[in-house]
Structures are given as structure tokens and as C-alpha cells.
């Protein structure tokens, strides 16, 4: 269990390229450490099959997102492909002030801003075993067009070049093993 170093909670940044398995590994991590609370991000992309507004993401129109950004309600944000993703500022601040440990599943662009704002954040980068496996995972989703897959692979290559901006790296060769490695990182951060 992750203990807080101060009266406030700890911030955990969890990033990795699309297809690295963040949405598979993170629920296992959350189940393994009840002190963690996942922040629900804003996005302007269309919900995937089974995703629930307010649980998986807050699905917004581009105008709604830009209005929240202009009003200072977005802690960090990134433009990924043709969509915006961002972290609701008020929800994170409130959780941290209550002493909760908050996990931000965010893009590399947004993580750079969080590291500047919260230099003590625990930063974890999830890697695929290889680019070939990453591409196989993206194709297996059967949710993206060839253009979207090519865009995601191009972005993934850039994100992988920036992995050294993170303190911790975990290869997702098996979701449960990767989650166990993440939980050990969080345990050791006490």
C-alpha cells in the first residue's frame, strides 16, 4: 500500500504508448492497492464499446474541452492524434488534499507538465515488449482505421524516445506480472 509522505496524497503518473496495455494493467494495480484512486480524464474522442462517461473518461466535445481549458479547469492536457485529453484540476486537487493517492493515466506531453508542477510525483512508463507486439495489440482492438493505427504507431515511436523522462520503466509482457512490478515500485516509494 502506498503511504503518503505528507498530510496530502501522492501523485502517480502512469504513461505509455497506445497499445502498451495501460487499460489492462492499471485495473490490476488499483485492485492490488486500495490506497490508489484513478483520476478520470477528459477526452474529445468517441467512446469505445463498453466505455462509460464519467467512469472511463468524461467525453466532451472539442468546444466543451477548450472552454474548460480556458477557464483553468484542466491541470494538464495533450493533443493526441485528432483528439484532446486532459486532467480535471479540481478533482485531483480535492483528492490530494483529502490525503488520497491519485493515479494519472496520461500522455507523455501531459506528464511533462505534471513533473514540473509536482516534482515528487512517482512516474512510471509502461513499455510494450516490442514494436511488433504493440502493432499487433492495436490491430487486435479492431477499433481504429489504418490511418489511426499508423498515427498511433508514429506517436508511439516518439513516446518511446521520451521514456527516460520517467523514473520507473515496466515492460508489459504479461499484465499480471507488469502490475506486480508497478505495485512493487509503489510499495518501495513509501
Quaternary structure state of the chains depicted: single chain
The helix tally amounts to 7
Global morphology: globular
Rg, Cα atoms, Å: 16 Å
Number of domains: 1
> Strand sequence of the main sheet, in spatial order?
2-7-1-8-9
Report strand %: 15-25%
Number of strands: 9
Q: What's the CATH H-level superfamily name?
A: P-loop containing nucleotide triphosphate hydrolases
Low-confidence segments: none
Please name the CATH topology.
Answer: Rossmann fold
Which class best fits the helix and strand makeup? alpha/beta
- Tell me the distance between the termini: 8 Å
- Mean pLDDT, all residues: 92
Helix content: 40-55%
The CATH class assignment is: Alpha Beta
Q: What can you see in these coordinates?
A:
The protein is of the alpha/beta class. It has one domain: 3-Layer(aba) Sandwich (Rossmann fold). It has 7 helices and 9 strands. It has helices at residues 22-32, 62-70, 89-97, 108-117, 131-141, 146-161, 175-188; strands at residues 11-15, 36-38, 42-43, 58-59, 74-80, 83-88, 101-105, 122-127, 168-171. The strands form 2 sheets. It has a 5-stranded parallel beta sheet, sandwiched between helices. Helix 1 packs across helix 7 (175-188) and helix 5 (131-141) runs antiparallel to helix 6 (146-161). The chain is globular, with a radius of gyration of 16 Å.
